[in-house]
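User: Can you predict the 3D structure for this chain?
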Amino acid sequence: MNKTRLNLITLTILAPLLLLVGVAGFVVPSQYSVMSNAAPYNLFHIVFGATGLFLLSVRKDLLISSFNFGFGLINLYQAIASVVGLTPIEYFLWTPTDDLLHLTLGTALAIIGFYGIREWKEKRQ
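Assistant: Here is the predicted structure, written as structure tokens:
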């Protein structure tokens, strides 16, 4: 499987999942959630999920790979910010489960996106 196709499949799974997580954050009572239920954090997921769906509709390989790479870096930043106490910790109210997910997902997305961008550049040369 080429890296461009992997990025497309990844975002096809990720974008609706982000929307679902964002909406679920508003619906599931906080006492039943192992992850942050903060409203700004839920909106963050909804916005990025909608952005991902839009990029899927545009079908531009570089944009899809760049989204995966960038969102991966954002996830890694969130893991670091939660542990170190950087912004937006006061708004997103991350839990240790969020941290583990951000670290795992962020690493995977950054790697997948990076190789997709690299493959796109190699095709253009």
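The mean pLDDT is 96. The first helix runs from residue 3 to 27.
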